[in-house]
Design goal:
Blueprint: E1 4-11, E2 17-22, E3 25-27, E4 35-38, E5 43-46, E6 48-53, H1 66-75, E7 78-83, H2 94-107, E8 111-114, H3 130-134, E9 142-143, H4 153-164, E10 169-172, E11 185-186, H5 189-194, E12 198-199, H6 201-218, E13 221-224, H7 230-241, E14 246-250, H8 278-290, E15 295-296, H9 305-308, H10 325-333, H11 337-352, E16 369-379, E17 398-408, E18 411-415, E19 418-419
Parallel strand pairs: 1-4, 1-5, 6-7, 7-8, 9-10, 10-13, 11-12, 13-14, 14-15
Antiparallel strand pairs: 1-2, 2-3, 5-16, 16-17, 17-18, 18-19
Length: about 425
């Protein structure tokens, strides 16, 4: 195993110092064979952790694979990602989650932690093999039908009760489907003007309100995916004040983009949940700083060209996110490195139970970290992204902060802004 000395690096924006990576750990032992890397002007963060990534494999390798998604993650500063279950076949058995887990290990760029489906085939009718997935080699702890809501309250209660036995988590895609049938964008002034069927905020808020009550009743852990409305923030704030075991995530695009972009009819801006209003964006930002929203998660959703470059009504919802997430968060929060580390590394690692990730860069800790150049500015070029897909909403946008290097257990996966393998 190689050794590296990061010379003059600033850990979380602190005073420049040397940081030794040896035997997969942060070390204070000298090593004359260590390779020196000039990190002057760079900030070291604990490796980022994403609770919400779509890697598409198995089944839609034309859009993404575990390997290409892992490379995108490493280039974005991530050392671990949680892979959603809406693959083909669905990750609703021990066999499929173990396949995704092994593909991640073979790629070796980030730790890929599969998320298991809550229900068989994401159909919302019958619980999947939660226990078998939890005891598999993949050690699944988070379960989600993301893309679909577990709309049946009785089934949701049973899922929360089941995972309580091994301290698992149900991650809910909060959407009352009877309120969003045919919806194309956020319901509001813009949808009315454009004549597009609206996706009302209450469809999200009603499910979150129901589920926090169920989680409170059962005493189980609930995680709310991609929160997008000011009303949802208030429901979460009240639930946390009562001590409900609920956590929540927000995506980078919901922290920045608004529903008026739909006026272009460019399907790259079609996402689920939809882009909301400027008032919602402001509430989400405040909640993220306050801690009502616990983490930033990308909802990285690659799509093949034919699924995005078509009429708005027929386009699949979703955006790329892994390679741009940190830059978007820096543009929103500024260079608040400790807060960024908390929302993008420590807390998501803790929620997912990923030992060795999200740890402070102290002697003896696993050397999972990323180096960012806060002074750099870069222009997003879809052709230069590592993903197999190109559906980024930031094409041509100049963003702050550039990932220079990422290390997984002391070994570089990215150096000089380029993937090592």
């Amino acid at each position: 195993m190689s050794s590296y000395v990061l010379r003059n690096v600033s850990v979380l924006g602190g005073a420049p110092a040397n940081l030794m990576l040896r035997d997969g750990l942060i070390s204070d032992l000298p090593d004359i064979s260590a390779e020196y890397i000039d990190a002057t002007g760079l900030v070291a963060l604990p490796g980022l952790v994403d609770l919400h990534t779509h890697l598409r494999e198995p089944g839609r390798e034309d859009a993404e694979t575990v390997e290409t998604g892992s490379r995108s993650a490493a280039l974005g500063g991530y050392t671990a990602v949680c892979a959603m279950a809406n693959t083909s076949p669905v990750a609703d058995t021990a066999g499929v989650v173990e396949q995704v887990w092994r593909l991640g290990r073979e790629a070796g760029l980030v730790d890929v932690q599969p998320i298991g489906a809550v229900t068989v085939g994401l159909a919302g009718k019958q619980l999947a093999e939660l226990g078998a997935m939890a005891t598999s080699a993949a050690n699944v702890r988070i379960f989600s039908d993301d893309g679909f809501c577990v709309a049946d309250p009785r089934l949701m209660r049973r899922a929360l009760e089941y995972v309580k036995a091994f301290d698992g988590i149900i991650a809910q895609h909060a959407e009352e489907p009877r309120l969003t049938e045919g919806a194309q964008m956020h319901e509001g002034e813009v949808s009315t003007r454009l004549g597009l069927t609206g996706w009302p905020a209450v469809a999200e808020e009603a499910i979150i309100a129901r589920d926090v009550l169920l989680a409170e009743h059962v005493g189980s852990r609930l995680h709310v995916c991609h929160v997008s409305t000011a009303g949802s923030v208030e429901v979460l704030r009240q639930a946390k004040a009562r001590g409900v075991r609920v956590t929540a995530e927000v995506t980078p695009h919901h922290l920045l983009l608004t529903d008026d972009l739909a006026a272009s009819y460019d399907p790259v801006f079609k996402v689920n949940p939809p882009l909301r209003t400027a008032g919602d964006v402001a509430a989400l930002r405040e909640a993220l700083v306050e801690g009502v929203i616990d983490v930033v998660a990308t909802d990285h959703a690659p799509h093949a060209v034919e699924d995005k470059e078509c009429e708005w009504a027929y386009a699949r919802p979703g955006m790329l996110g892994l390679e741009t997430a940190l830059s978007i968060v820096i543009s929103v929060l500024g260079e608040r490195w400790d807060l960024i580390a908390e929302r993008m590394s420590r807390t998501p690692a803790r929620i997912a139970g990923l030992a060795g990730h999200g740890t402070d860069l102290a002697v003896g800790s696993p050397a999972n970290l990323t180096l960012v150049d806060p002074s750099a500015r870069w222009v997003v070029d879809p052709a230069e992204l590592a993903s197999r897909s190109r559906n980024t909403p930031y094409s041509g946008t100049t963003l702050p902060g550039r990932i220079v290097a990422t290390f997984l257990r002391g070994e570089p996966t990215v150096l000089d802004g380029k993937a090592v393998k």
